[in-house]
Amino acid sequence: MTSLGLCAFGMTGPDLLELARSADQFGFDALWLGEHIFHPLGYGSDHPTDGTQAHSHHVGPIVDTATELTDPWTVHAAIAASTSRIKLGTAVYLAPLRHPLLTARTTITVQELSGGRVLLGVGTGWLEEEFTALGVPYKTRVSRTEECIEVLRAAWSGEPFAHKGKHFDIGPVQVHSRKVDIPVILGGNGPKAMDRAARLGNGWFTSGTPSFEGSLELVTEVTRIRETYGKTDDFDCYVRVDATKESQLQRYHDHGMTNLVVWADSIWKGESVEEKRANLEKAADDLGVRSA
Question: Which residues 6+ apart lie within 8 Å of 282 measured at CB?
Fold first, then answer.
């Protein structure tokens, strides 16, 4: 069975909440929220997929002063209280910009508030100016991300722990009194990113919107890498697609890609909430999404 989620970036908090309520009703599987914290004016950083088909959804700078920015966990807490089944994903959350104990506290709270619907999509980041402004060395973002994941899993265990690493010296502490299971989904299409996802993640998420052929190649590769590490546990690949009809999704399903995601702003559009809901419901019908 194919599940179809939505990903959103550059939308206001109230609009995201309305979208989530409607998507929950119409049967979409998940809502994945992107994030940046502020608008670096005149930044010079390039997204890893700039200038390629994989990132053709965006026109112009990804983060400019016209881009609406929200905190994904604040929005997801509101969504959790307003919906019953849609999963709450981040694609992606910039973990290296925060201390992992703070991330642990937030994710545990939203996971329990939502009844276990959190999908923690994590990225290492690409916007150097964002790291500089927050006092985090940009060159450490990869090792910092990996260490954050290690600390998060210890914090989610519900047990006391101590950690002494390259970036964080913690403990002994106990973050929660109960074990909380939160899947970590790592994003990125490059060789190092895919190796990191295969090695450390519970799943992988495409960056940008690759072609069908590109998606199949990437899924095949991350699966192959997991085999080299001897990984046999469940591992979900979330593939962002540009599709408007169920028959287009079927092609992915026939090749084993069953966790698909479309850009929300391609179907959640209109001058009013009512018009947006009508367009989303029609898209759900066209894409074969089954009403909840």
Answer: none
The H or E element containing residue 239 is strand 236-240
φ, ψ for residue 42, nearest 5 deg? 65, 35
pLDDT of residue 58: 55
pLDDT in tens, 45-63: 677 764 454 444 555 567 7
- In whole angstroms, give the CA distance from residue 36 to residue 17: 18
Task: Tally the domains of the chain.
Answer: 1
CB 74 within 8 A of CB 80: no
Distance separating alpha carbons of residues 262 and 156, to the nearest angstrom: 30
Q: Is the peptide bond before 172 cis (omega within 30 degrees of 0)?
A: yes
End-to-end CA distance of the chain: 15
pLDDT tens, position by position, 175-190: 999 999 999 999 999 9
What would you report as the CA-atom Rg of the chain, rounded to the nearest whole angstrom? 19
For 6-15, how does the pLDDT look when each residue is reduced to its tens digit (9 = 90+)?
Answer: 999 999 999 9
CA distances from 288 to 3, 138, 244, 285 (A): 10, 43, 10, 5
Range of the domain at 29: 3-286
Q: CATH number for the domain including 105?
A: 3.20.20.30
